[in-house]
Design a protein that fits this description.
Blueprint lengths: L6 H4 L4 H16 L2 H5 L1 H19 L6 H6 L6 H14 L1 H5 L6 H12 L33 H12 L7 H15 L6 H15 L10 H8 L1 H12 L3 H25 L8
Helix pairs in contact: 2-14, 4-6, 4-11, 4-12, 6-8, 8-11, 9-10, 10-11, 10-13, 10-14, 12-14, 13-14
Length: 268
Amino acid sequence: MSKDPLAALTSLPGVAEAAEEARAAVDQLLWDRVARRKSNALAVESTVVGAWCNAAFEGAEVLLDSLRTGAVEDSPMGLTAMRTLAMYAEIPGSSDLVTSAPLQAIARLHAVVAVGSTPEEQLGRPRNGEELSDPLRLGEPLSATELPIRLQGLSRLLTTETAAPAIVLAGVLHAELASIRPFAVGSGAVARASTRLILRAKGVDPDGWSFPEAGLRTLGRNKYVAAIRSYASGEPEGVAEWLTTHSRTVTVGARAASDELAQLPEDE
């Protein structure tokens, strides 16, 4: 029996091919000479665009330019967008932990994005009840009594050596967090940001240049929800659907970053 828990996933129809295409798209961005000359500006833009797209899935639609300048209105939507941006500032440091102390890395992101929307003593801590925010209407979450076992299993998965592509591992982490919803508030935002944790930690996108959340925004809320539900079903076809969808959003996000290069200034 294989000791690699992700080995079977790469053999699902379309998964390996989609992951390879996504890796190639990110590699093309990393080797782009213009991107290298504009690396600092690109990393900043990636952070802002990523947070902007992520917050939109929580229902916080704000102007991208207002998030760039910090001139977001003082409203629930504005505060959600700003907290999401603050969470993205934690990603570089948290990515160093995700393959050694993954639950700590996840908790670190939650402790930032959920400030003001959950009691202080619950920041970074799994929920202990069944009530939770469900902006995407995913339906019944994993019960609070089952969460500790599921999270420990996720932790073992992330700290075990695997031959699976990093993009597949990122897709599993993203979908696990989105479907089990470990926190009463903010699980979805943390899930969508978690793709970046793995891409950085595994050296796929070490400086955070690509815009994977732009791929999610292009996909749209309805198709995103459907893909997460497919994964949560546990059926091989559903898992394959999500993993190929996730890889395609990474591909789209890498190309979106390339398209943005002409608008960015050269590094000083």
